[in-house]
Write a structure and sequence with these properties.
- By secondary structure, this protein is an all-alpha fold.
- It folds into two domains: 110 residues; 40 residues.
- The protein has six helices and no strands.
- The longest helix is centred in the last third of the chain and has 36 residues.
- The termini are far apart.
- The relative contact order is 0.08.
Length: 169
């Protein structure tokens, strides 16, 4: 029973590994490299199957009755449900990859060149606008500093009133 739990953990780790490997291949395709998605998927599935078969102990591979269950007799070590989950993950990753490509391509085609130039021209500030913005920021900072100084002076005056600097005995 302990070997079956270890095998399940190994299969889950293999699913995670080959799922990430497939996502990395899709990400390489986003960087501009040409990839064959079907070939990459086939390689990941075959790699998963090979690793899963090598993860089964030899006594169980040869059909020997190594594990006994209380009800059914033999506890099989199989990976088909995990392989199905890996395939579902790969299909979802491919769909999200295609959605991302479509959104990027539609965003690139939706913004014509004239709109981009208009936005750049609107953002372009003249020198006196920049100077005015800086003077406004400096004025606000000066006002805040002046209010803080007045608060500090008031607190010092109250402290001196309650506790003078020199003893009066």
């Amino acid at each position: 029973m302990c070997i079956q739990i270890l095998y399940k953990n190994q299969i889950d780790a293999l699913r995670e590994f080959y799922g990430r490997k497939y996502e990395n291949i899709l990400d390489e395709g986003n960087k501009g490299e040409d990839i064959d998605v079907e070939e990459a998927a086939a390689q990941c599935v075959e790699g998963f199957k090979a690793a899963a078969l090598h993860g089964i102990p030899e006594l169980c591979r040869m059909g020997q009755k190594f594990f006994r269950d209380r009800k059914d007799g033999i506890l099989p070590l199989e990976y088909t449900t995990t392989l199905t989950g890996l395939l579902e993950d790969m299909m979802m990753g491919l769909e999200s990859h295609k959605d991302a490509e479509e959104s990027w391509s539609s965003a690139a085609t939706d913004a014509p060149e004239n709109d981009i130039h208009e936005v750049k021209q609107k953002k372009k500030m003249t020198w006196y606008q920049k100077l005015g913005a800086r003077l406004l920021v400096m004025g606000i900072n000066y006002g805040q500093g002046w209010l803080a100084l007045q608060g500090i002076r008031k607190a010092a005056a109250e402290r001196d009133k309650n506790m003078p600097k020199f003893p009066l005995f």
